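Methods — Computational structure assignment.
A single polypeptide chain was analysed. Its primary sequence is given first, followed by the predicted tertiary structure written as structure tokens.
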Amino acid sequence: MLSRKNPNSDAIKILCKNISAKCDSLESHWQQALANESFPKRADINRHLRFAESHDFEDLISNDFIEADNKALNFVSENLSNRKGDLYVSKERIDELSSLSSKFDLTRLVYICKELNLGYQTGQVYALPLLVRCILDHIPPIFECKSFKEVANNYPSGTKSFRESVKHLEESSRKIGDSFLHTQIRQSESLPNSVQVDFRQSLDVVLSEIVRILR
């Protein structure tokens, strides 16, 4: 919005300086974590920022940043795993979802699945049930329902294993997610582990049903 109203405003210049500072931080972290991977030339980053500042900052935000974010997520998911070969959502299932063509845009669903893998691989236990909840709230229209609770209670085409998986996700994952979100600070805590937030089997049953419906 700022770039449309006043592309040469002080706010845009400050934002560019902040981005440049973040690039410095990224380069430092990159060199520590990925010593054998070459970092994009600093001159190229600054050149893009200078061009965006004076010409088309909106294009940088709308296209370049999103593309870079997707590339970074894919790179980390594929190369920086603490659990090699152990994913929250299987690569095959993500590939199936990515290949589907239907009236529903599955871009967000696929992206959340990739974030689930990244969180699982890097031990971000608190993020996992929240991302599962994001999926449950996102997919009901595929089942011609308004909520995932309605999918659990009224979806007529599911098998027994599907109904059991949906019920498990609806009840258990939401309860754990709620406890993560709404529990206030206490004098002592017991931190969750990956076993507590493991809904992989049930989630895969639901995702496989999506593939079946939309194929």
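Note: DSSP finds nine helices and no strands in the chain.
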